[in-house]
Amino acid sequence: MPGEFRTLADAMNHATMALSRIASGAAKTADEVAHSASDLASASRQISASAGEVADAVEEVSHGAESQVAQLRQVNEALDGIRTRGDNLVGGAQEVHGLASAIEAEAEAKRIEIDRALKILFDVRTIVEQAAAQVRELNISASEINKFVVSVSRIAEQTNLLSLNAAIEAARAGEAGRGFSVVAGEVRKLADQTQAAADDVVKMTDSVTTRVSATSKAMEQGVSQVGEIERVSRELDSALSTILRSIQPPRISDWLRAPPRVTRRRQCR
Fold first, then answer.
1. What is the four-CA torsion angle of 197, 198, 201, 207, rounded to 10 degrees?
2. CA distances (Å), 31 to each of 23, 35, 37, 40, 176, in order?
3. Angle CA 120–233–115, to nearest 5
4. Could you read off the pLDDT tens digit of each residue along the chain, which spans 269 residues?
5. Would you say 121 and 233 are in contact if contact means Cβ atoms under 8 Å apart?
6. Taking Cα atoms as reference points, which of 187, 155, 188, 184 lies closest to residue 169?
7. What is the pTM for the complete model shown?
């Protein structure tokens, strides 16, 4: 019996030791599990925090994206407005180009007409100057005729005096001077007629001289006015030439081609 108790005691000891080892291992395992659980809990908290940060970041990105989308929409609206204004500017520039072309054509036509008018004015001035010169010569001739008529009038006066003296002498001679008295009377009549004709010629030459002088002054004024018209026409021709030089459709065409270049730069961006 004692040997059986010992064996039983040994078995109990072995069992106790085995259980102790198992308990120790279980405790160790429990500790390890506890540590693992703690690590898992810590990792879980970190993951949760990271997830929160990620969520916040995603939310911020979302808000930023919405803001960028809103800004892009505003930019798009602004670009649409710029495009519309650009189209309006292009349309206005085309109208200006058409108007400039019309002005250029009209200015060129007027310049041609002014050149033709200048040639006509030059011819008119030449004719008027020649006529004025002829009128001046006619005035000189009228003055010479007037001088000649004055001389004839003096001769008529002297002839009349001579005929009067002859009549007096014939009267003194009596019957012998009767024939000479008749001749003296005829000479006196001829002198009177000559004097009357001379007076008429003087009146006519005075009238002609007056009219010629008036015509000469009018022609001189005409020459002056033609010269003034010619000067104004030349100034107008110069102004039209300046307008033609200032109108340059190629510059407007280059400006009209500018919007496509802006569009290409915008597309490249």
1. -130
2. 12, 6, 9, 14, 204
3. 50
4. 555 556 766 666 666 676 567 666 666 766 666 666 676 667 667 766 766 776 677 677 666 667 777 777 787 788 788 878 777 777 776 777 777 777 777 777 777 877 887 788 778 778 877 887 887 787 788 778 878 878 887 887 888 787 777 777 777 777 766 677 777 778 778 878 887 887 888 788 788 778 877 877 877 777 777 777 777 777 877 777 777 676 655 444 454 455 444 444 444 44
5. yes
6. 184
7. 0.41
- Nearest CA to 190 among 165, 149, 155? 155
247 in helix, strand or coil?
A: coil
CA distance 231 to 109: 19
Mind listing the domains of the chain with CATH numbers? Answer: 2-268 (1.10.287.950)
